[in-house]
């Protein structure tokens, strides 16, 4: 079983999802990226969006990565999230193989602290876009939220869940108390 596939799918059976069709594919270049991508999985779970997570590498498993991206749309996926570090070409390679939106998450994996990954992902040449998020866990979380916003454009129930999620975050801020 692909890494974290059960994490993504487990919650959906608890929460009576709108559909068991997997809509979001999360790909990471190495198992070492998993902790950084976990917030994306958790948010997709919270929003009841069926997802799957895989380890596939642009340079270690280029054939399998290409096949994944090329077949994703036919399998019913709607958005892809790609997290990688270093010379992070994962998201760009995936984007070159599909017309699904690809959201890139730069991972800290080298002494350059993620700046290398950020520039690798964000500096796609004109014609093959990758939506690039912030470095690290905040970027992973926002990739999931952006995927949810894309899907909510055609899913009114998801739109309501997303609105409730954001309202809850606002309430958390309003409830914060400073020390006396
Ligand atoms: C990239 O190289 C991966 O996305 C990871 O961030 C980085 C290091 O990978 P490992 O050497 O830990 O497998 O391809």
Write a concise synopsis of the structure shown.
By secondary structure, this protein is α/β, with parallel strands linked by helices.
Description:
This protein is of the alpha/beta class and 180 residues long. Helices cover 47% and strands 14% of the residues. It has 7 helices and 5 strands, in the order H-E-H-E-H-E-H-E-H-E-H-H. A 5-stranded parallel β-sheet has the order 2-1-3-4-5, sandwiched between helices. Helix 2 (34-46) links the parallel strand 1 and strand 2 (51-55). It starts with a helix and ends in a 6-residue tail after the last helix. Bound molecules: 5-O-phosphono-beta-D-ribofuranose. 5-O-phosphono-beta-D-ribofuranose (RP5) binds at residues 29-30, 32-33, 57, 84-86, 107, 109.
Total E-strand runs: 5
Ligand inventory reads: 5-O-phosphono-beta-D-ribofuranose
The strand line-up of the biggest sheet is 2-1-3-4-5
- Outline the low-pLDDT stretches: 10-17
Strand content: 5-15%
Query: Which structural class is indicated by helix and strand composition?
Result: alpha/beta
Shape: globular
What is the string of SSEs from the N terminus onward? HEHEHEHEHEHH
């Amino acid at each position: 079983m692909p890494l974290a596939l059960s994490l993504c799918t487990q919650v959906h059976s608890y929460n009576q999802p709108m559909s068991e069709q997997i809509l979001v594919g999360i790909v990471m270049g190495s198992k070492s990226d998993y902790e950084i991508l976990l917030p994306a999985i958790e948010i997709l779970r919270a929003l009841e969006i069926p997802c799957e997570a895989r380890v596939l590498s642009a340079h270690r498993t280029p054939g399998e990565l290409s096949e994944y991206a090329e077949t994703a749309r036919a399998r019913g996926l709607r958005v892809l999230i790609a997290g990688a570090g270093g010379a992070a070409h994962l998201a760009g390679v995936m984007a070159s193989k599909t017309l699904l939106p690809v959201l890139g998450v730069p991972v800290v994996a080298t002494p350059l602290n993620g700046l290398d990954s950020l520039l690798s992902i964000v500096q796609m040449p004109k014609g093959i876009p990758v939506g690039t998020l912030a470095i690290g866990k905040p970027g992973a979380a926002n990739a999931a939220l952006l995927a949810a916003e894309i899907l909510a454009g055609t899913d009114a129930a998801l739109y309501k869940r997303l609105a409730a999620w954001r309202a809850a975050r606002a309430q958390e801020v309003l409830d914060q108390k400073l020390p006396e």
